[in-house]
Each structure stands twice: as structure tokens, then as C-alpha cells.
Design brief:
Blueprint (H helix, E strand, L loop, with lengths): L2 E5 L4 H12 L3 E6 L14 E4 L5 H11 L4 E4 L9 H21 L6 E5 L25 H15 L5 E6 L1 E3 L6 H9 L2 E5 L5 E2 L1 E3 H14 L5 E4 L5 E2 L2 H10 L4 E5 L1 H17 L11 H4 L9 H7 L7 H14 L4
Parallel strand pairs: 1-2, 1-4, 2-3, 4-5, 5-6, 6-11, 7-10, 8-13
Antiparallel strand pairs: 9-12
Length: 328
């Protein structure tokens, strides 16, 4: 039986990673914080460990007590911070301390999967496809922190890491894209800017499947793009919701200057509430990018993986879950 440690296990993606490991009959340890909500981690087979990524000594002690794992999926990180330093502390520094603790303890796993982001590469021009070997050019601090972490892992000797770089991830329990899904469900599909955009998506269950394929077949030291392999326009999210709900959706194109004003106001409100808003001026560089299309030939080939869902099939399950759980 394989032993696997999943960090960020209480989050959206983390919960599905835990479920996939349990379905495989693996011995699962979920790394969480004391304040983590365990609502999606109720299976009695799950073991727990509380890790403080800011404390190297505590990490070494807790990891030593937990014993060596065959696989580690490092999914913990932050997608919302108010400063560049916040992103680098949560994504780069915490991962550095985590990897160094494993090496110091002699506990390097058979495979260490780092959950990076497509933001680490950055977008491309309209009509073009992101290639796995192209020069990275992130457009946000978040993307920069993920890229710096990838480069750090690449600098380690004898550490069998592999990374996945997911596009926009959607599915049951997700809370950020849910904002756009809820608006579309009510009949309003808002598009950022007046120009067409090329987008990519991946359904959370497919992402979990691709990540386990990366654990099994991924070549150490390689990074794998993670999308469903299809090309979408910026109107397709609203169309997918419309198809599922049977409700007519009106598309509204919001000019970028107006979006920037809304983002600035959203930032100000977030600061007053001491929360980082999903819509902010820094994030806008990603949201308004021309193309996030990805060439998935290498990912699908190396990992022997094919998605089971596209945006429309995944949206059907997603909206049904939101309805059943009274989110819609």
C-alpha cells in the first residue's frame, strides 16, 4: 500500500486529491492547519498531521514522527495576498522550508509533486498556444512566486520533484469561479474587456487524475501543463452554465478601464475587511490576458492521461452540486 502525504488537504483541490487516494486504497495523511475546516475530510481512514511551514524545526520534528512517504503532493499555498512578499512567503519560502526539512531528515519521497500554476509561465498572444518549454513570463506576483519555487526545486540535488501547472480549475466546492458561475446562473455573463480571449479550463476531477498520473509516470524535473486540452472563448463559461440551467444568459462586455475601477474599489473593500478580493488590479493582468491556450501534447503523452470532462460536461456536475447544496 502506497503512503501519500497531501498538503493543503482541506482546500478545494486538496479534498479531491484525498478522495482519489482513498479510492486507490492508499494510506492517506492529510496535512492541515489547526484552523482548517475538515468538512470534506470526514473519512475515518484519513490520518492528519498539523504542519507549520514557517518553522523549520517543527517541520523536521513532525515529519520525522510521521515517517517516510512514498509520494508527497504539495498543494498548500496561497492564491490571494495583498503584497509580493506575501506571495513569496506563502508559496516560495514555505515550500523551501518543507523540502529542506525532508532532505535534512532523509525523507525524500519517491516522487514530490508540486502544484504550481499556469501563471508561472504567463499568457501568450491571441491565437497562440502556450508551449511547455517556452520562456516563462509571469504577469503577476502570484505567478512569479510559483516560478521561483519551481526554480528552487530544480536546484536541489537528489530530490525527485515534478510539477503540474493547472489552468483555471472549476468544480464542486470551488469558490472563486463560482462567483462568475452564480452570475451566469442568474442570467448575467460578464466578460472582461471588449476583445475576444482564448481560455483554457480543467475540471477538478480531471486535474486530480492528471496529478496522480504525474506521480506515477511524470519524469522527475519536468513541469506539466494541466488543462483539458481544448480551446475556449471568454463567452463559453456563460454558455456552459446556460446549457445546464436552461436559463438564457445575457453577455455583457465590460471595458477594461471600468474593470480597473471596480478592481480598485474591490481592493479597498477587501483591505477594510482584512481580506484579499478575488478581483484586484494585480490579478487583472491575468484575467484580461489574450490567450491561456495550452499545447497538451506532452502532458497527455508523458502521463498517459486523457481527460474525461470538457467545460460543458464538468459544468453540468458542478452546477448540480451547487444546486443540491443550496449554493445556487
Amino acid at each position: 500500500m502506497k503512503r501519500i502525504l497531501i498538503t493543503g488537504a482541506s482546500g478545494f483541490i486538496g479534498g479531491f486529491l484525498v478522495e482519489e487516494a482513498l479510492q486507490r486504497g492508499w494510506d492517506v495523511t492529510a496535512a492541515i492547519r489547526p484552523s482548517s475546516n475538515r468538512i470534506w475530510l470526514q473519512d475515518e481512514r484519513i490520518q492528519f498531521v498539523e504542519l507549520d511551514y514557517k518553522n523549520g524545526a517543527d517541520l523536521r520534528k513532525k515529519l520525522e514522527a510521521a515517517g517516510r512517504f512514498d509520494y508527497i503532493v504539495h498543494n498548500a499555498g496561497s492564491t490571494k495576498e495583498s503584497t509580493r512578499e506575501g506571495y513569496f512567503d506563502s508559496n516560495f519560502e514555505n515550500t523551501r522550508r518543507f523540502a529542506e526539512a525532508l532532505l535534512d531528515n532523509g525523507q525524500a519521497p519517491d516522487k514530490f509533486l508540486y502544484v504550481s500554476s499556469l501563471a508561472a509561465i504567463g499568457p501568450t498572444k491571441s491565437g497562440q498556444w502556450i508551449k511547455p518549454d517556452q520562456a516563462p513570463a509571469p504577469v503577476t506576483f502570484y505567478g512569479e512566486s510559483k516560478l521561483a519555487t519551481e526554480r528552487f526545486l530544480a536546484s536541489l540535488s537528489g530530490f525527485p520533484w515534478v510539477a503540474v501547472q493547472p489552468s483555471a480549475v472549476f468544480g464542486p466546492r470551488e469558490k472563486d469561479l463560482f462567483i462568475a458561475i452564480r452570475l451566469a446562473y442568474k442570467g448575467w455573463a460578464f466578460m472582461i474587456g471588449t476583445k475576444p480571449q482564448d481560455l483554457s479550463f480543467i475540471y477538478v476531477k480531471d486535474l486530480a487524475g492528471l496529478m496522480y498520473a504525474a506521480l506515477e509516470y511524470g519524469i522527475p524535473g519536468k513541469k506539466y501543463l494541466a488543462t483539458d486540452g481544448k480551446a475556449y472563448s471568454n463567452s463559453d463559461l456563460g454558455k456552459a452554465v446556460e446549457n445546464v440551467s436552461g436559463r438564457r444568459t445575457t453577455t455583457i462586455k465590460v471595458p477594461l478601464p471600468l474593470v480597473r475601477m471596480v478592481a480598485a474599489a474591490s481592493e479597498a473593500i477587501g483591505k477594510m475587511r482584512q481580506k484579499t478580493s478575488p478581483l484586484n488590479r494585480e490579478k487583472l493582468s491575468e484575467l484580461a490576458a489574450e490567450s491561456w491556450l495550452c499545447d497538451m501534447t506532452e502532458s497527455f503523452g508523458d502521463l498517459k492521461f486523457q481527460p474525461k470532462y470538457d467545460l460543458f460536461a464538468g459544468m453540468k456536475e458542478t452546477v448540480q452540486w451547487y444546486q443540491n447544496n443550496r449554493w445556487l
